[in-house]
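In response to the reviewer comment on reproducibility (Comment 2.3), we provide here a single inverse folding case reported in full, input and output, so that an independent group could reproduce the run without further information from us. The structure tokens appear first.
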């Protein structure tokens, strides 16, 4: 008697003879397809999550005369998830914030000697927007619990 192949099953009959039966190909095919679909689903979820977090926001922060506002501080607040991120503007006025989830963000830029600049941006699942901010000269300070400029207080 030959040894059974991996695709065959041996069943001993009562007469002392071994009979060889092929395995059910449908059952084997279904189990392979289910396993393959499971793996594709797992890998697909990992890839989608990586793509969603791959959004960036970039731009430049300048004064009204066009000179860069170095070392300004940016605060980004996602209005959907309330996630808050911050970044510091480079010496040439540029900034880049990576790994953002899609959503609507409020951007607040602040720097010494300048009034805060505000902007709102929508980051879509397939976009990497560029937002340039212009900061007006003047100081900002708290007045009745709200950040104000000199010309806003009475």
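Designed residues, in position order:
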């Amino acid at each position: 008697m030959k040894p059974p192949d991996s695709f065959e099953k041996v069943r001993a009959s009562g007469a002392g003879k071994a009979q060889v039966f092929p395995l059910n190909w449908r059952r084997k095919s279904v189990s392979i397809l289910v396993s393959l679909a499971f793996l594709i689903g797992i890998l697909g979820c990992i890839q989608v999550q990586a793509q969603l977090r791959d959004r960036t926001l970039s731009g430049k922060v300048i004064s009204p005369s066009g000179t860069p506002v170095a070392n300004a501080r940016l605060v980004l607040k996602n209005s959907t998830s309330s996630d808050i991120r911050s970044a510091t503007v480079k010496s040439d006025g540029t900034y880049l914030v990576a790994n953002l989830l899609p959503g609507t963000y409020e951007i607040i830029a602040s720097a010494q000697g300048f009034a805060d600049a505000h902007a709102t941006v929508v980051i879509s699942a397939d976009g990497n927007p560029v937002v340039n901010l212009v900061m007006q000269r003047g100081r900002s300070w708290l007045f009745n619990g709200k950040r104000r400029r000199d010309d806003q207080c009475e």
